[in-house]
Amino acid sequence: MHKRCPHCHEETFGWRELVTLDSFTPKECKHCRQLVRNSGWRQLLAPLAIISVFLIPVAVIVLPLLLVLIAKPVKAEDPQTDLSPFTPDPDNDKAILIQGWNEDELRKILDDFVEQDLSAFAAFRIEIQKRFENSFALTFPEDIHPDEFACLINYLAYPFDVDLAGRSIIVAGKTTLNSDFDGLPKSFEGKKALLYLPENGDDYQVVYLQVESGGTLAKAFNEGDWRKVKDARMSAAVKSLAW
Hints:
The chain is of the alpha+beta class. The chain is 26% helix and 21% strand. The chain has helices at 15-20, 40-55, 59-70, 103-115, 146-157, 236-239, and strands at residues 27-28, 35-38, 73-75, 95-99, 127-132, 135-139, 170-176, 192-196, 206-211, 216-220, 227-228.
């Protein structure tokens, strides 16, 4: 039994790794070298499985299998020591459009994203509005930190433990840029921007943004600053999204 890395989506975690994977000591994925930890659910369920050893002798054999089954690799949070001060704005204009998931799939993906407990950020609430068949808009009544906003755009396109074969998923976000965007050039503040994933990309850790004037920036989740790029790499599908 193997489970996928939440970063590169390769099945790199076999049963040996899953038995020992916990929530507090991240391990490197053998393929992409990104840090991975176990979901917090493991910490809640594992003690019950261990107690069963003393109640049911056969559990001595079953216990490793239970630990593998309840294991869920999730991204280990990078230390966020330099996040800019963030005061949530209830009048924010952040929004995300998604096409390709049905409502049940979308809600499960969002639940999984929240379950990862990105505790460096303030709590947030997501409102879902259906636009067309398998097309939805997300808004954030209490606001959401820009870094987590970008992470969510990425996660909606590349959710963990979901088969993407034969699926066409389109995701883009829009917002007015401000100083809450860590590492953003001053000249971009106050401009409306479209955030999206680069076309034909094989790096699942990068998000692009483009402002109305045409300037384009890119940022990987392990980088501190947004960097200018010459090739916008915006797909026709993203351009066609009707806001």
